Amino acid sequence: MQNVVNLSCACGTVKGKLNVVNGSFFHVHCLCCDCQSFASYLNNEEKILDEHGGTELFQTYPAYIEITEGRENIGCMQLREKGLYRWHTTCCNMPLANTMNSSKIPFVGISVKLMQFNNEHEKMEILGPVSMKAFGKYAIGEMPTDAHPKFPISYMPKIIGFMLKGMFGKKNSPSPFFRDGEPVAKAKVL
Ligand SMILES: [Zn+2]
Ligand SMILES: [Zn+2]
């Protein structure tokens, strides 16, 4: 089954579409300090993070996301050299997605905040529940009881299967974040 979800940044300048393909995504919460640092770099923690400092992400293949409007408002940063590329809007400082710093890897973690749903029910039908809360030890305040303190090892085989399937299917491209193998915006390294 496949659903197409509209994407929009907070101010509506950057728009896109996402293919939600069953069996080809993870719906997760990341509580890590890097995601929190990214939100504070964007100076927008209140809009981005939940009460525990968590970021809601939809991890899938780059070939499934398309930016249709406002491409000139895509910015990129890295918290450290060789770190993940953290893509964001420059119009309203909202996160777009995380990718590896190479166009060859079939992985993108998209901010669920971009996804436009009519209501919570529709969101639940399309995305299903959050299947993993990782890096709970970095939570602000008390760690949520359903979070894993770090990264659950039991998840690794699923991730490896996902990566292999993506590599065989060449799902790393087309990507809205790379053109001819080069990032569409130069990353600012903190
Ligand atoms: Zn994180
Ligand atoms: Zn915007």
Total strands: the figure is 13
Instruction: Estimate the helix proportion, in percent.
Output: 10-25%
The largest sheet has its strands arranged as 10-3-4-9-8-7-6-13
**How would you sum up the major sheet?**
8 strands, mixed
Outline the low-pLDDT stretches: none
Can you tell me the overall shape? Answer: globular
CATH class: Mainly Beta
Query: Class by helix and strand content?
Result: alpha+beta
CATH topology: Metal Binding Protein, Guanine Nucleotide Exchange Factor, Chain A
Give the percentage of residues in beta strands.
25-35%
Our count of domains comes out at 1
Q: How many helices does DSSP assign?
A: 4
Q: What integer is the average pLDDT?
A: 96
Q: Separation of termini?
A: 40 Å
Rg calc: 16 Å
Report the CATH architecture.
Beta Complex
List the helices and strands in order.
EEEHHEEEEEEHEHEEE
List each distinct ligand once. zinc ion
In terms of topology, how is this protein built?
Layout: E1 2-8, E2 15-21, E3 26-30, H1 33-41, H2 45-48, E4 55-60, E5 65-69, E6 74-78, E7 85-89, E8 95-99, E9 108-111, H3 120-127, E10 132-134, H4 156-168, E11 178-179, E12 182-183, E13 187-189
The structure holds zinc ion (2 copies).
The site of one zinc ion has 4 residues, from helix 1.
